[in-house]
Design a protein that fits this description.
Radius of gyration: 20 Å
Order of helices and strands: EHHHEEHEHEEEHEHEHEEEHHEH
Number of strands: 13
Shape: globular
Helix content: 25-40%
């Protein structure tokens, strides 16, 4: 086998393998399927930074290190007809998040809007998965979460805020919804990890060091993000000339909504380290569902939204450009390709899958690169 070869694996095969890994780690079968579904959904949509490549370092290793509980205790701390506060007790973030968004959707069906917040949760994969739950139900979905400190504030160099996505999904009359799912930093930690897996330098303009200069040394950046010697830049980049304060402001907004509403941890309390020991990263999330039928007919909303997106794509293109995209379109196109062709896995991920299979005695799985 060539050490540089990328193999494509069928989504259903990968989904079942991941579910069996979680089951072996003590995650209940139904929640294992949820966790597997979220990770594979990321890969299918071309978001490789949050898919199977994070199975071992984010979930497998943390469960084994006993800083992530495989059995999730989903506690309703406070509830009204339109809102709820959940304590996830450091359980599986994907299972917690899916139940939270479903609660928000159910409340919105009854009273027009629903919002659920969670504390003491853990990494939940791509935020777009949960926002799309709402769009599939004919609603507008909004999702946000805080994360380990990574972003430096404008005019600062210390990593203070998480990459903190502010995510929306809206139904349209097209084959795919409008999905805006992105971090409030120029890039996210998972993308730096992706560069590391392929031995690539980090592009200039994404990360700064304590001297305020750009950093491109990927492997060292990953170490320095943990020590505070490097920081991701907010959307807009350095300073005010390119409006970095806007990304900084949105990241702060998500941090507040992910902690203050549910009295949860924030910023450096989410570092995952205390007294030089690994500790749970007790994240906060928020989920909102808005019932479109409370404002206008769903069919009308979808048509208007579709018309807006089609006009954008049909507008005048820059010289040399063949196409204009709208949010969620590239992910939809990736999905159409990867469902048929499979999910591409680099050598590093291949080796991690083999390691987990062997350690958990999942002998029935033979990967395509082993044949």
């Amino acid at each position: 086998m060539s050490s540089s070869r990328i193999y494509h694996v069928k989504p259903e095969f990968l989904k079942q393998f991941i579910a069996d890994v979680f089951i072996k780690l003590g995650v209940p079968a139904d929640e294992s399927l949820v966790c597997s579904e979220v990770l594979v959904a990321s890969d299918i949509r071309g978001i490789d930074s949050h898919g199977v490549n994070r199975l071992k370092p984010i979930y497998y290793d943390r469960i084994r290190d006993k800083i992530l509980n495989p059995k999730t205790r989903f506690e309703i701390v406070k509830e009204t007809p339109t809102t709820a506060v959940i304590d996830g007790h450091n359980g599986m973030g994907m299972a917690i998040a899916k139940r939270c968004m479903q609660m928000a959707i159910d409340k919105a069906k009854q009273l027009g809007m629903g919002m659920v917040v969670a504390r003491n949760s853990t990494h939940f994969g791509i935020a777009g998965y949960y926002a799309m739950m709402a769009s599939e139900a004919g609603m507008i979905g909004q999702v946000g979460t805080n994360a380990r400190p990574s972003i430096a504030p404008t005019f600062g160099v210390q990593n203070m805020l998480g990459t903190n996505p502010l995510t929306y999904a809206l139904p349209t009359d097209e084959k795919f919804p409008f999905v805006l799912d992105c971090a409030t930093s120029v890039t996210q930690r998972g993308k730096i990890e992706y560069y590391d897996r392929f031995g690539l330098p980090t592009p200039e303009g994404l990360v700064i060091g304590n001297d305020g200069m750009y950093r491109t040394d990927t492997k060292q950046i990953l170490k320095d993000l943990n020590t505070g010697d490097a920081a991701l830049l907010p959307l807009g980049g350095v300073g005010e000339e390119t409006a970095g304060y806007k990304g900084y402001g949105y990241a702060t907004l998500v941090e507040i909504l992910s902690s203050a509403l549910q009295a949860g941890n924030f910023m450096h309390a989410l570092s995952g380290v205390k007294n030089n020991k690994k500790v749970p990263i007790e994240l906060g999330h928020f989920f909102m569902a808005i019932n479109i039928e409370s404002f206008t007919e769903l069919k009308t909303f979808k048509k208007y939204t579709g018309n807006i997106l089609r006009e954008l794509r049909a507008s005048k293109k820059a010289p040399g450009q063949k196409r204009i995209y709208t949010a969620g379109e590239k992910e939809y196109l990736a999905e159409q390709t990867r469902i048929k062709k499979g999910i591409p896995l680099p050598i590093e991920v291949q080796n991690e899958l083999i390691t987990m299979r062997n350690e958990l005695s999942l002998k029935k799985y033979i990967f395509p690169w082993e044949k």
